[in-house]
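Field notebook, page 435. I keep forgetting to write these up properly, so this time I am using the form the group agreed on. The chain and the ligand, DLL, are recorded exactly as supplied. Prediction of the bound pose follows.
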Amino acid sequence: MERYFDEAIETASREEILEIQNRGLRDVVKRVWDNVPYYRKKMEAKGVTPEDIKGREDLHKLPFLTKDDLREAYPYGLMARPVKDCVRIQSTSGTTGRRVVAFYTQNDLDMWERCCARALTAAGCTPDDVVQVSYGYGLFTGGAGLHGGSHKVGSLTLPMSSGNTDRQIQFMTDLGATIICCTPSYAAYLAESIHERGVRDQIRLKAGIFGAEAWTEEMRQSIQERLGIKAYDIYGLTEISGPGVSFECSCQNGMHINEDNFIAETIDPKTGEPVPYGEKGELVFTSFTKEAFPLIRYRTKDICILTEEKCECGRTFIRMTKPLGRSDDMLIVKGVNVFPSQIETVLMNQGYPANYEIVVTRENNSDAIEVKVEMTQEMFSDSISEVAGREKKLVAALKAMLGIYCKVRLVAPKSIVRSEGKAKRVIDKRNLYKG
Ligand code: DLL
């Protein structure tokens, strides 16, 4: 039984979905105007009132919100409901500047968990499944979101949180977990650990729901093969609720946005002008059903492409590609735009595991980039010339992909620190960004 395939909504006609969004937009603009002086001031500065907003076609008239606004209004300045109506906060993992805190009423939690339940259902989850939630619990939204979604579906939920890999594998084998939810980098690490312990034949996993950080198609293939599962992408951000803003179906061809709660647009990050479906742009969300912390035109900084093309699964919600980079974490090295995912693609194509570190430095006004790559046990060799040959090959492949020289240093298996949450792959010693 697919309890959280909301057929009437998820396969509604585009006209019906637009009608839901038009109504939702008018409602949220009015609520925010009445209850959030911070955003009302922004609207007034742009000379726009709720009467000017009839539907999606008027969205462009509304001001954007950014992380800076959230920091300025921290902690309570963007709430549309009093504290007494709220039951939960979650927060981003940011380590610099003020944290971002999001508030939830009970209805907000229900909506968020329903979105996660849809994601689980799309990955084949039913009440018969045993769902191991290995995202971090606590302020991070990963654990709480998938945990709530799994409860809604009615699956047996293992609230593991992240870390303690021995215990993860023990519960996974003892309880016969069938679905695992964690970051893709931790999934890769788990796969490696399972093989090392020789317990691959004792695991019952059939699917994994991986998100919260960038991962490539190559990494998907590798995780799928090593764990014998189907790996589904899931996207979301704390400000807009958490995981489940969008999710992959079995077609694995883009993530369906839960459009009965979120309006997605893409814009040119430089000009702020909307870009059409099918073209790359910065993703912007309006969460129109949230009660406590609704955000209007929130700029995610994630670059992606939206498509309205019909999906074979039958769902009519539009799809987004994986984030193709961030408008703010893209590296500019020697004037060239470098996305860490491009480097990962090269490494994985050449058979390296997804354990690497990108170090960017600047000396005498000249940028240098070094990629530290871990060898597998099979590749590991005492022969200096063999290692040098491998490094040379990677340098050439990276040059072909990026157009610039990257120094490559192959390091021994297991020498790069594993992440239990989001992997920190880039160390930019130039400190070009503040806050
Ligand atoms: O990472 C929510 C989440 C938890 C999503 C578990 C999926 C699974 P934040 O910590 O606020 O929230 O980080 C949000 O992470 O703007 C993206 O840049 C990135 N991100 C999230 N999902 C994906 C994904 C959670 N599937 C930020 N692929 C977002 C690539 C992702 N990047």
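OBSERVATIONS:
- Residues 158 and 218 are 28 Å apart (CA to CA).
- Residues 1-326 form a domain with the Rossmann fold fold (CATH 3.40.50.12780).
FOLLOW-UP: compare against the apo run.
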